[in-house]
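Assemble and predict.
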Amino acid sequence: MNYTFDFSVLVGNFGPLIEGLQTTLLLALGANVLGLTVGFVVCLLAMAPFWILRLPAKMFIEFFRCTPVLIQIVWFFYCVPILFNVFLDPITMGIMALGLNLIAFNAEAYRAGIQAVPKEHHDACVALGLGAWHKTVYVIFPQALRNAIPVLMTNGITILQQSALVAIVAVADLMYAGKMLATNTYRPLEVFTAVALIYFFMSLPISQVVTFLERRQDASVER
Amino acid sequence: MNMVDNINKQQEEETAKYQGAEDNSPLIEFKGVTKRFGDTCVMDEMDLKMKAGDRLVIIGPSGSGKSTLLRVLMGLEKIDKGEIFFGSNPYITVDRKGRTRTDMSVRSKIGMVFQHYTLFPHLSVMSNLTLSPVKVRGMARSEAEDRAREYLARLGMEDKLYSYPGKLSGGQKQRVAIARALMLEPKLMLFDEVTSALDPEMVAEIEKVMLDLAKQKMAMMIVTHDMYFAKKIATESVFIAGGKVIEKCDPEIMFNEPKQERTRDFLDKVLHLK
């Protein structure tokens, strides 16, 4: 290899990267808020006893789980405005596109979390006279959330990384800023290495927390 | 008079009320109850009566329908046929379309303790005890907490109020589960093999708690594999096999000279008399 790395090109060019980073964080945060809240509602719908609620929720989950996120983003950015005459700013569109994907994956994480709550706890709720609402809010949801946290956090990191895909539709996120900088400086290796390291150091602490939580849960598994 | 005495007195008064003084009218009556799981019939047109204040012990081989009987009574399983009365009121019935109908106001008079404690692990002992009285019964939190303290003190667990279930031994968990069921002041308590998952020392601990409840004339239906305890606590005993009541009699008769051959065979096996 006769390539000489020259990271000095980054000096003085951090401004656009920081701006892109802010957009990336906004996209990831927004998508996670959608995924964590609406994901639980979709999960409940997908587990509803009535097929009329269950079927659309399941179709939604399967559609978003079974198609590439890149196609979802492209479809969302180009087809939604044409089909529904809706024009939103690119960041909102990005949050919604990523958020819809995360809702589907988080709904599945919640479902697994709910199914991991021992059946006997449902029986105990009946014996204690707890109705569906009280059972869900005070008994099932806190336990399901605890069971699902590692997967929800993993999904959160994944969407942070997948947010780089919105650069393809010209949303000025970290990846887009990197692409622009690489073009301007003719130093793609240095720029994309720096961008990769930024993604890595944002994801690493969360992934460590996930590992810690999984270990703690393994140690405290009991009925 | 302290709160413990108050609770005891209230329970005795309630029990006396449901006993109908000297009358022997049943507290619970199963009439031709059938329950199937697929092709397996676990309760086969079962008839069974239990008087108020009775401690009915249900024994029988595994798979005979003992636990199902309690689960049906708690409303955890639907029935296919028959009806169950609580006092003179229909409690569980089957409508013309074959759907089980349960009178929720009656169900709230029944408490149940399970084999595997079923304490909610994310809630402290106090929250486990007060959740239902506060959220379902609308009891003031302070009143519910006072009551929880008294029940736990009665069960020797006052120092564990704010512990989490994960920090308790099996026996302690089961005592908390009993206190949690008692918080709702049930007229009838169902115990489903509550000592099966415990080691012998803890079994004695729980049996003592149940005998204390028996002294307060709490109506109980108990499914157990511990024949010695069954004999000690029962005022009435039932032997069930194949989803049918084979024999129902005084425990003295059941455990000393059972009338039915199947009962004799079963007891001979479990008591190692053969």
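Chain A has one domain: 7-219.
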